[in-house]
Amino acid sequence: EAQAVMALNPRYIFFRLDPDDDGHPAGAAGLPLIERRAVAVDPSQWRYGDLVWLEADGGNLRGATTSYRGLAMALDTGSAIRGPVRADLYMGRGDAAGAEAGTVRHPLHMWRLIPKG
Question: What is the count of structural domains for the chain?
Answer without folding.
Answer: 1
